[in-house]
Amino acid sequence: KAIAPVALLGSCEPYNHLVTPWGSSPVIDHLLSSASLRIVHDGAEYSRSDKARLLAAWPFGADRIRVCWSDTRPGTNCLACEKCLRTMANFAVHGLPVPASLGGDVDRLNQRISTVRLRSTAQAAEWRALRLVRRPGARDRWQRWITRLLWRYQLRAVFHARLRPWLRRLAGRPSAR
Predict the structure, then answer these.
(1) What is the DSSP letter of 159?
(2) Whole-number CA gyration radius for the chain
(3) Pair 57, 130 in one domain
């Protein structure tokens, strides 16, 4: 006998900005269901910044957010990695205070934003979404840096896709592909 008849999988992306390939998707998650357990992909009607805005109205939950995979201390956030800074930005983009679990201060985001290195198309897509939500006329340093983050990511992508194989051939080394 099943403990629960339904399991909810929290969405990563909203329906209108799905990133593929990805391990979880509203298109395929229900295929994990069985006769005794139904899998439901939940929350894809909201973007991450929409979720942050809704969560800010629930201080108990907002002050207990855990997003970090980098921190070695269980139940804490490092407050410096790309994911921690992006989560801070999801609150700040709406003019909301950064929750205590994420340092409680937008100054940390302003100080650390220049250290962020985007490493995947999924991360770049998240920052593009934040750029679209950005308040007009906002003067926060972190908001001005979003365009630079995306620009640096694109330059690295071009280098890795086009120039690196050419330089390897020029140096007489086989391509890494």
Answers:
(1) I
(2) 19
(3) yes
Cα–Cα distance for residue pair 92/140, rounded to 1 Å: 9
- In-domain check, residue 85: yes
The token duo for 104 is 């409680």
* pTM attached to this predicted model: 0.78
Please report, for residues 5, 117, 150, the alpha-carbon distance to residue 121 in angstroms, rounded to integers and kept in the order given. Answer: 35, 12, 10
Q: Does residue 176 lie in a domain region?
A: no
Burial of 52 (0-12, 13-18, 19+ CB in 10 A): buried
User: Is 95 found in the same domain as 51?
Assistant: yes
* 175 located within any domain: no
Q: Does 80 share its domain with 9? A: no
Q: Which domain holds residue 20?
A: 1-45
Tens digits of residue pLDDT in 63-99: 999 999 876 777 789 999 999 999 999 999 888 899 9
Residue range 140-161, pLDDT digits in tens: 778 888 889 999 999 988 877 7
